[in-house]
């Protein structure tokens, strides 16, 4: 239940069981409330109806037709965020002057709501996948930069100093010492940012238009199709969870490789 050493805590093999049990309890309560007629289907549909709607969308190809544009924009935005955030975090860590200038703007970038940024992106870039991907990159940018900076600033400086004494250059220290040691923090930020890109993609489609899940969400809302709304939200959540799991698996493999735990 509790570990005295948080940094040494490792997830157990059955870590998914409590979450599955909690989810099952929530679904059972949801079914009981709706089946008993305590809440009208207009406000809360039966979970079986939502699952049936998702099955229909899957078999007819509707799910993938609307999911593909959203997922494509989200992944493109994640790549943009990684390409910008990680090098920026490295430079912030190694330059006090640059950090003093840039860090306030990095913080300010998260204070502007996405719905306020989206119209500007339409004005500057136009419509299509690219502005939505840029919006995804903006929402994923902050956690990636922050964890990169925190990871590099939390290094054991004795190891870095020993590398300096051995004559390692700046690039050698970054690639062979600093990068592997800070990899868990950096990749955790990448994982969080990738998940957030799904939110950015849906918000972008709601505001800027498109052909993805955000558009399907708008259509079901205008039709007062509550079961359809829940189905779309479920597709968004399932996609985000899948991305989280994939990136987490890649993260563990990369950390093990970088830190020499595998051959």
Automatic annotation (TrEMBL):
The keyword Cell membrane applies. Pfam families: BPD_transp_1 (PF00528). PANTHER family: ABC TRANSPORTER PERMEASE PROTEIN HI_0355-RELATED, ALKANE SULFONATE ABC TRANSPORTER-RELATED, MEMBRANE SUBUNIT. Belongs to the binding-protein-dependent transport system permease family. It is a multi-pass membrane protein. This is ABC transmembrane type-1 domain-containing protein. Keywords: Cell membrane, Membrane, Transmembrane, Transmembrane helix, Transport. Its main location: membrane. One of its GO terms (biological process) is transmembrane transport. Residues 67-251 form the ABC transmembrane type-1 domain. GO terms for cellular component: plasma membrane. It comes from the Bacteria. The lineage of its organism: Bacteria, Bacillati, Actinomycetota, Actinomycetes, Propionibacteriales. Coiled coil: none annotated. It is found in: Cell membrane. The chain crosses the membrane at residues 21-44, 64-93, 105-126, 132-152, 194-217, 229-250. It comes from Tessaracoccus lapidicaptus. PROSITE patterns: ABC_TM1.
């Amino acid at each position: 239940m509790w570990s005295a050493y948080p940094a040494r805590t490792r997830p157990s093999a059955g870590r998914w069981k409590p979450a599955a049990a909690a989810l099952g309890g929530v679904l059972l309560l949801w079914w009981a409330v709706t089946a008993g007629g305590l809440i009208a289907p207009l406000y809360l549909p039966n979970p079986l109806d939502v699952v049936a709607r998702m099955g229909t969308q899957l078999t007819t190809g509707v799910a993938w037709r609307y999911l593909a544009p959203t997922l494509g924009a989200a992944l493109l935005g994640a790549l943009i965020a990684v390409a910008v955030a990680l090098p920026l975090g490295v430079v912030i860590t190694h330059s006090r002057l640059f950090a003093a200038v840039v860090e306030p703007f990095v913080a300010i970038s998260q204070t502007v709501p996405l719905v306020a940024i989206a119209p500007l992106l339409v004005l500057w870039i136009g419509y299509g996948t690219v502005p939505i991907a840029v919006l995804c990159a903006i929402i994923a940018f902050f956690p990636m930069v922050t964890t990169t900076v925190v990871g590099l600033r939390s290094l054991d400086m004795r190891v870095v100093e020993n590398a300096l004494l051995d004559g390692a250059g700046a690039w050698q220290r970054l690639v062979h010492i600093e990068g592997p040691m800070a990899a868990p923090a950096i990749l955790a930020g990448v994982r969080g940012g990738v998940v957030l890109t799904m939110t950015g993609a849906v918000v972008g489609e709601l505001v800027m238009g498109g052909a993805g899940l955000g558009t399907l969400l708008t259509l079901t809302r205008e039709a007062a199709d509550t079961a359809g709304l829940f189905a779309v939200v479920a597709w968004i959540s399932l996609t985000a969870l899948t991305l989280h799991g994939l990136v987490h698996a890649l993260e563990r493999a990369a950390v093990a490789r970088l830190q020499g735990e595998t051959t």
